[in-house]
Write a structure and sequence with these properties.
5-stranded antiparallel beta sheet, alpha+beta, 41% helix, 10-stranded mixed beta sheet
Length: 763
Amino acid sequence: MEAVMKTPPAPRRGESTLAGFRSTGDSRTVWFSRNGCVVWHADGRRSVLVGGTLIGGYSEKDTTSRNVLLVMLAKEVVLENLAHAFGLTSEAVRLVRRAYEEGGYSAIVKKKRGGREPWKVTGKVKKAVEACFTEGLDAPGTRRKLKGLLSEGTLRKLHREWTMARAAEVAAQTQPAAQRHLQLEEEPVTTSTTEPVTTSTTEPVAPTPTETPVEAGVLKGKREQSGYVVRARAPTVGEKDNEADGRTLAAAGPRSQKQVQFLGAWLLVAMAARQGLHAAVAEEGASKGADGALRLAVDAVTMALGIGQGCVEGVRRLAHKGAAALMRAVRAPTPTWVRQTLGRAAAGGRGFFIRSRVAGELMRGAASRAGELAVFYVDNHLRPYTGMNRLLRGWRMQEKRALPGTTDVHVHDVDGRPLFRSATLMHDSLGKLLLPIGVLLRLALGGGQRILLAFDRAASYAEALAELRDANFEFVAYEKKPYPALPRRCFRKSFILDGERVAWYETRKNLGDGRGRLRRIALRLRGGHQVNLLTSSEAPAAELAAIMAGRWNQENAFRHGVERWGLNQLDGRTFPDFDADAVIPSPLRRRLENSLAVLREVEGRLRRNLARPTREEQRVELERDLARNLAQQQRHQARRPELPTHCTVAEAGLVGKLKRHEDEYKAVIDTIRTVCINAEADLATELAVAMVRPREAKRLLKNFFSAPGAVQVHDASIEVILDVAARSDERPALRHLCRVANSWKLSLPGDPKTRPLRFKTQN
């Protein structure tokens, strides 16, 4: 018989319960298994114990001893728990194990690194660098001329300081007569389909020596207003350096070119623009002058997601030989440039406005497809976090335990298409979020549209259901157990659901405390299993049962969004502190409860051993351990009334330690993901009808988005010829998709002539 492996419990913190060890007052214990822990002392020392025996210790800087202990313990315990106890990430533990497997203990011992000391920017070195800048050299050219004396990053910093110093000198020497050059608006620029037309700077830059003081003041006013500067002229030496390190980028029109990688992603970009993504980002994310930069950033993220990268970092995969033609820019943007551009567009709460605008359009589209009754699925999922910052813990149903992360509430339409995602700061329950979600839907759809919310039993509490009913929202949800099992004779009515006959019986459910009654529909499934539905809708029982059966569309959408589009990606890297007066679950109470759970588990093991026949000396020792355990439980029970379940961040001593994930930037990235998923669904619907294996439509679409091809730009259209990797039986379906896409007359965002795209496939 094969042994059944069980996952160890989550790491426990609190006072040690091992027989031979007690934590002191200035230390804390972090458990990595049922009998193993790491004791963190206040002076920086850390002791590792297994079964009450000290097997080793190390200091904070003693990585050699730490790594040796890690590889010794990694064979027997869960790596995630071990990494948590040692204060590392699971990736760091994995790298240590890999180094040990490849090179033994010598590979994990920290070696003293030699080499020269880093160069210092002395006065003599600075003069040599400034002389190179005066000659017109940029940072890479200066580094080559000085034979690698300074790093390129240091040279860029010196170049910025030199540029600002020269600009200040010119501004001080310029006469007031220069005010006659004041221009309130930018001069018109003649656009071209082959040459760069604008240069967008997504980072405030100092005025160059060619700018007058008044022009510098106009630019400063623009920077203070929007954070963007658009220049319609040739870049100077300083701006060329900015372009080299990714802060300035020139946009260009479409041009004809052969052998362009990932050209099929143009279809996804055009579909996203058709759904209003680019317009929402440009209008809500920035003021006049930043449209070109935002268009390029949104296109880059859309293409990276379309070819399967899953995050903004995947933009680096677009930097190929034909990137200029693909991106319609002088070169491919860097991930840093894209993050900075979209980050500034999302700052100040504008990211939420972008999400709301796009979500409103998607909601109205879903309601128009639904007809009289618009059905929306609502659910919340925890997005786990495995970094070094300390975040609040939330319940993750997939792992049946609480994990650090962010709880997101998702809304999907009846077909499982995502509409929007919203993060909850305090891991609020789904029942508290239903009414705000309903209000948002009503604002987007108007008061005349019937709205039905479908959700899981996690939110089927009497208070939440009564709130929805009193606000005139229809809903349907599973009833929480326990509820009475009805006899078979009650189920006299039936209907067909997914090819199976389902019997049903309807009664009324009293919510209690004067909240009134709801419809209760009991369903008898195959095998005699009974499931109850609670609803305030007057829709037929068969329709409500079909709606709840279709809720798996949302679960499938979650999985597809995570695996295909990177929905659980962290995206934003900003973690501000929690407010000191914010109320959170008390960590002291949680540690006390965890300690009590461990003590009760140890008590059960001791009582089982006492029930077996043992020697007298062993029995005496077991009774002594049991008495000590019971006394410790009694002390913990006495402390419980003194520790409330919730406290403020300041009372918990977590000011400056407890972080929260900033959601503005991720709201923009997830909005792009949402639009891409909806566009993919529209294309897959058209593609599947012509496929021999319609279930593989989205896989074939991924090949389409990644396909290389050639571009032929004409006055009235843009022809895109693609070489898609496909089987012979899939090529007719691809030709059908191209015909349908061409009938939609899609165009690229930012094309001044809005020429329609004409897609073709080779062979």
